[in-house]
Predict the 3D structure of the following.
Amino acid sequence: MKRFYLLNIAAILGVLSISLTVSASEVPSSEGFSWVILSDEEPEENSDDDRDKTTDSDSDKGTDTDNDDHNDNDNTKDNESDRNDNDSDNRDDDNSNKSIYPSETIYSKAEIEDMIAEKYEELDEAYEIEDKFKKTKTIDGIDSFILNFCGDPLQDKKIAFLGDSITAGSGGTLTPDGSGLGYTDFIAKYTSAKIINLGIGGAPFDGSNNDDALVNRYKDIPKDTDIIVLFGGINDLFAGAEHFGSPDELKEGTYCGDLYKTFQQIDKRHPDAEVYIVITYPNKMEQYQQYTDDKWQDYADVQIQLAHKFDFRIINLYEEGFLDSNDSKVRNAFFKDDIHPDDLGSEILGRHILVHLIRKHL
């Protein structure tokens, strides 16, 4: 009897019931969550009789081999060489076919475009789901479908992510370079675009007391970057209201002023780049009123206002209600703590951000 051992955080919690496919390690499941097959089946031990039979069989084979004509060796080697050449060609064909999903013999290009357009409509509708866990699960299922069918529209692009600990990968499994596994690592699994991660933990926009602030690091973005993603601001919320400043005065050394300077300089230095502003998802940290009397919505509104001013695109996770860690089921399934996603949370965050990035290129 075959036994499957599955590793999935949400499954351990007993909150999901998702059908799996044997190819799950290559293609995300229809629900969007990644599964890993640790073992296909347990090996069966040979009985003494089986071992005896095997020994006899091997002995017979040895006798037959001794009686073969050695003159056939050259022909055998030639045949093996031909087979190796054919196998190499077949492997090349297999690899090229794997890059095309689904096969065009199944769906035409027009049919794929129609299916993807329909899924984007479903995505807009999914933002209205009231149950926060169901919403995140539904959105990820749609994201996975789109990414499975869209190909790699960003393959020739260079994408830079400038942000804080969420971008840096805090909360994820430590990688060999000492950083954490974050959403950009999972984006890299879906596209061959060059990914540049400029995330640093604790980084705000306000640069008055922090050398790692985004306003001090926009120069780190390479000049030839095609797509720029800014994902920050939550650390400014916890710096306190005295650092907020005013969207009308835009004084340097405040959140509002340094946010404006960051946007202005990026717009000036990268006039041909697509710039996306990611508004941080709803999170339980907002409830910590002992640290600040402000609301994250006030900080998000300034980002949205200035993004419109510079004609930047907006990925408003806060308005979508995606990955809302205020919900205990969402937090337990996808987060390391109240704000930082774990590996699974970073995976679905990466898929969702990428789905936003590719929409213009389909």
About this structure: Strands lie at 158-163, 194-199, 227-231, 274-279, 313-316. Residues 1-103 have pLDDT under 50 and may be disordered. The first strand starts at residue 158 and ends at 163. DSSP finds 13 helices and five strands in the chain.
